[in-house]
Specification:
The protein is an alpha/beta fold. The chain has two domains: 4-150, Rossmann fold, CATH 3.40.50; 163-235, Winged helix-like DNA-binding domain superfamily/Winged helix DNA-binding domain (Arc Repressor Mutant, subunit A), CATH 1.10.10. It is built from twelve helices and seven strands. It has helices at 13-24, 38-48, 64-74, 89-97, 110-121, 126-132, 135-150, 163-173, 178-185, 189-203, 208-217, 225-235; strands at 4-9, 29-35, 52-56, 61-62, 79-84, 102-105, 221-222. Strands 2-1-3-5-6 form a five-stranded parallel β-sheet, with helices on both faces. A two-stranded antiparallel sheet has the order 4-7. Helix 4 (89-97) links the parallel strand 5 and strand 6 (102-105). The chain is globular, with a radius of gyration of 19 Å.
């Protein structure tokens, strides 16, 4: 029997272990990869080419929504099922925008998780079905599609970073130096610098701090209030005898 390839993306090891056990209890499914953040997810997807990715919405660093958007651009045949501690109209709307096929809360019954995976593997889009049963959300989605199709209004344009550029931004949000980014992505420091230059150009910002601010203010990524204050302080001139502030650390809020 040919097993369907599944990838799990979540920053909580115990949750990944439990989800893997559930999925592999079904002889038709094989978990071929796991990842705990965005850049690992994009790397593993490129290697293992999963049919379905079960992904936490709120990852450390760049959020699952933007990781999914990049993944779907590169691998349109890969379906994404989002997982979250809770679901609301805003998250459902964002999930529709990035092309997800389903959205589940993490307390969903195990049997329903398996049923959802198999429905998505058959080509069903359960998220679209959920939207159709929510009149207010359906009007919101339809309104955006009309705006995009007839040119009325000025819809927000999402900057299309390549998967590698998004990986670099993800590592930047997590406070990594160029050397640490290179080690994480298995590339040289010079290649990191080249990608960073491209990221800054596409975001139309001048430096790494401005790129981090761009990601945070547009909710591409989440960092804590104190960490953001440290980032702002890093931009100010430093006295020679003052210690350099610690790099920003990402925090998952899922």
């Amino acid at each position: 029997m040919l097993k369907r390839r599944i990838m799990i993306v979540d920053d909580h090891p115990m949750f990944r272990i439990g989800l893997r056990r559930l999925l592999e209890s079904d002889p038709r499914l094989a978990v071929v990869a796991e990842a705990e953040n965005g850049h690992q997810a994009l790397h593993q997807a490129d290697i293992h080419k999963p049919a379905v990715v079960l992904m936490d919405v709120q990852l450390p660093g760049v959020t699952g929504l933007h990781v999914a958007s990049a993944l779907r651009r590169e691998r349109p045949t890969t379906s994404v099922i989002f997982l979250s501690m809770h679901v609301d109209d805003d998250r459902l709307f964002s999930a529709v925008r990035v092309g997800a096929a389903a959205f589940l809360t993490k307390d969903t019954e195990p049997q329903r998780i398996l049923e959802t995976v198999h429905s998505v593997l058959k080509g069903d889009n359960l998220l679209h079905q959920a939207v159709l049963t929510n009149p207010e959300l359906a009007r919101r989605v339809l309104g955006e599609f009309r705006t995009l199709s007839d040119g009325n209004g000025v819809p927000a344009v999402e900057v299309a970073l390549s998967p590698r550029e998004l990986e670099v931004l993800d590592c930047l949000v997590m406070g990594h130096s160029n050397k640490e980014i290179g080690d994480a992505l298995f590339i040289t420091e010079q290649t990191v610098k080249n990608h960073m230059t491209s990221v800054l150009r596409k975001l139309q910002v001048d430096d790494r701090v401005a790129a981090l601010r761009y990601a945070v203010t547009r909710r591409w990524a989440e960092i804590g209030p104190q960490d953001y204050a440290e980032v702002e302080q890093a931009k100010a001139p430093q006295h020679v005898d003052e210690p350099k502030p610690a790099p920003a650390r990402s925090r998952s809020v899922a």
